[in-house]
Amino acid sequence: MTTASSTNLNAFARKAPPRGLYRWIPGFAMLRDYRPEWLVKDIAAGLVLTALLVPDRKTLMYRMEKFGLRREQQEGSTPGATSQR
């Protein structure tokens, strides 16, 4: 015996194609099912990943020197400064 509620549990069931704005911006469909209690943990995970994936300047300069990618700076110039001629 199959009830209507038990058919909704099948994750592989064919769904109707998205319509309207959901068709062009798939993230909106995700927001419909997003739970507010996930927000704090999602923000914390995003901050942790940002801290791990964005290298600090010292590490970046070390890696550039290691692979010979660092340009020689002119005497008296500061890194990142643009010269106006």
DSSP strand (E) fraction?
Answer: under 5%
Helix proportion? 40-55%
Tell me the total number of β-strands.
0
Average pLDDT over all residues: 76
Structural class: mainly alpha
* Envelope shape: elongated
**Count of helical regions:** 5
N-to-C order of helices and strands: HHHHH
Q: Distance N terminus to C terminus?
A: 83 Å
Radius of gyration: 25 Å
The biggest beta sheet reads:
none
Weakly predicted, low-confidence segments = none
Textual characterization of the structure:
The structure is a single chain. With 85 residues, this protein is an all-alpha fold. It has a domain at 18-66. It has 5 helices and no strands. It has helices at residues 4-7, 21-24, 27-33, 39-53, 57-66. The termini are far apart. The mean pLDDT is 76.
Give the arrangement of secondary structure elements.
Blueprint (H helix, E strand, L loop, with lengths): L3 H4 L13 H4 L2 H7 L5 H15 L3 H10 L19
Describe this protein with a few key phrases:
47% helix; 0% strand; 85 residues; 5 helices; single chain; mainly alpha; elongated
Provide a quick synopsis of the model.
The protein is mainly α.
